[in-house]
What does this fold into?
Amino acid sequence: AQACVAYVLAETYKLLHPFMPFMTEELWAHIGGEGLLCHADWHVPLYRDDTAADEINWLVDLVSGIRSARAEMNVPPAAKAPLIFVGANSVTRERSARHYPAIERLARVDSLDFEKTTPKGAAQVIIGEATACIPLGNLIDVAAETARLEKAIGKVDKDIERSAKKLDNEKFVANADPEVVETERERFAELKTQREQLAVALTRVSEAG
It folds into this structure.
């Protein structure tokens, strides 16, 4: 037990040394550390579980994908929806069952099922070999959300057109301050990204209709 505590203290001092150099050097000397702490070998992880890391990354991707789909479609935060996997292999089935409590809480899911075909009216998120389907048609006003997204796309299209005209204007590019030109280029890129995101959201709403 004492050896374990001594090891933990020594490694802790190494980790803290960049932030508390003088104090940790003093403490290092008191535990009988060899030489100066600043010359000690940096801690190297002795064990890494790649399987566990892959599983956690899968869970993060799943929850993030579902939450993004819900946000894009203006689903009320408190509303819950079923989660249906299509094309799920045995690994995905096991992970889904094992982490269902977390998925239920973080992704606002109220049930889990596995099907062979994609259900009608479901937003889809690709996770590995499987497709996570979230039927959201009953949780949103499809017509109103479609109209909202189409209006937003129309506005962004006009902004893109105006920005493109500026950047295509040789006089503007040649005479304007370089920072102004760069800002306009960044704005144009952001508008294009926004347009793509709105298009994805509109597709998802159409799928849920």
